[in-house]
Amino acid sequence: MAVLHDLPFVVITLLSGVSAMHFLVIELALPLWTAQETPTPRYLVAVTLMINTLCVALLQVRLTRNSDLAGPSSRAMARSGYWMAAGFALIAFASGQPAWLAVVLLCGGALVHVVGEMIGSGGQWDVQMGLAPRERPGQYQGFAGVGFSLSGMVAPPSSSCCASSGAGHGNSSWVG
Predict the structure, then answer these.
(1) Taking the model in full, what pTM does it have?
(2) For residue 97, what pLDDT is reported?
(3) CA 92 remoteness from chain centre
(4) What is the pLDDT of residues 3-18, one digit of tens each?
(5) CB 3.0–4.6 Å: which of 99, 103, 159, 162 could bond 173 by disulfide?
(6) Does residue 156 sit within a domain?
(7) CB proximity list for 54: less than 8 A, separation 6 or greater
(8) What DSSP designation does 176 have?
(9) DSSP string of 127-161?
């Protein structure tokens, strides 16, 4: 397969796979951690997931409209990491706070995170498809899926372990 000899594409695919772990952190670790480490009602887990879903449905196209070339798309991917890190930092500060403040921090963190998610998803798609040669788009697209699949294998046990091992330790599992 020619794609395996395309080192820049392989690196982008692996980095995209690492970045894609955030999907499972939000969907798996956040609910576990929220229930264990914050004084918020458990239904807030559904609220944070609804924030994510509604924002993606309403804003994804608008936020990724200008990332149709590899250069701007790669910069968008880099910017998305800052947004996601800021969202996770807000979430981490929810531990040990009064319930009302924890709700604000969790919802705010979910909003900030989803901005990064949307910017990064559009950028990742455009970078990977922009780097693929026109004569082999299927091969490259298939290989790009490998990174996402690897994140789907690594993220569930690692993120749930971090969320569970954080029990009683506040925000340590979110900020190191």
Answers:
(1) 0.81
(2) 94
(3) 15
(4) 888 898 888 888 888 8
(5) 162
(6) yes
(7) none
(8) -
(9) HHHHHS-TT-HHHHHHHHHHHHHHHHHHHHHHHHH
